[in-house]
Structure formats: C-alpha cells, structure tokens
Amino acid sequence: MEQPDLARRIAAELKERGQTVAVAEASAGGRISAALTAVAGSSAWYLGGAIVYSAAAKEVLLGVGAADLASSGAVDPAAALLLARAVRDRLRATWGVAETGVAGPQGGRRSRKPAGLAYVAVVGPPGEAVREVATGRDERETNQQAFAQATLALLADVLVTPAAS
Q1: What are the chain's domains?
Q2: CB under 8 Å, gap of 24 or more: what pairs does 142-147 form?
Q3: pLDDT for 144
Q4: Which of 5, 50, 69, 88 has the fewest Cβ atoms within 10 angstroms?
C-alpha cells in the first residue's frame, strides 16, 4: 500500500477511536510526519513529531540520552522502542511511533551498521511492536522513503489488529 493510502487508513482508525499519535524520526527526515499531516483533518489526531537525527536532539527533545543507548546503540530495536515510548510520553499521545536507521551512503560513517538498515516501532494501548527494515541499498532518498513506508505500514497493521482497540 502506498504512503498516502496508509496515512488515510491510519487517520480513519485514529479518528474513529478518538486516539492520537506522536512521531519520532531519526533518519527518515520528517517523511513519516509529512505523510500523516498530508491527510486533511490530521490536527484532530496528529499531536506532533520530532526529527531526532543527532544524539543531542534525542536527549533535548525526548530525554533519551547517550547512556540510554549505550548498550545497544542508536540503530537497534531497543532504541526504536525507547524513542517511541519517549515521544508518546512527551506529547501524551495514545500512540508513539519511532524510526531509527542508517539512511546512507555507507562511506565516511563511523557506524559499522550498513546503510539501508532501520528499526521501526509502535507503542500503544495493546503493547509494543518493532520491525527491522533492511533495504540493502546505499541510496539515501530510497532508504528514507523505505523507512517511512515501513513505519506507516507497522502503525497501520497494529491499528487494525483486533487487540488494538
């Protein structure tokens, strides 16, 4: 399903339930929030988001410090869940959504994790879900779009499961 369709599906579910969402994006660069806020009426259910690209942004905006990420690193399932919990709590949303990854390109980076790797997470009333995204690509724009797509797909999947009411 394309991003606009996923965003409309998410919007319909959240609006019907009277629920809200908040977003933390590390490497998608605002693409998740852009897709959600492109839906007319999103102010009723989209509370806000943060592009937490740097360690400083993660700490200042979400209260997630270097010590919180020391054991797993910033690109890890645990980090994605931590960011989703933090943005949910900070904005008092029903749902917290997060993405953290390596958009690329591979060259010139300190991380040994490959370009095209990300973890996306959703935290909400029924619990928590996290997925790995591995594009195998080194193109930044391609990876950022894939990370946003995967995040929206995970949120849509979680929202339509029977336990997510």
Answers
A1: 3-160 (3.90.950.20)
A2: 143/27, 143/101, 143/102, 143/103, 143/104, 143/115, 143/116, 143/118, 144/27, 144/28, 144/29, 144/31, 144/103, 145/31, 146/116, 146/118, 147/27, 147/28, 147/31, 147/99, 147/101, 147/103, 147/118, 147/120
A3: 98
A4: 5
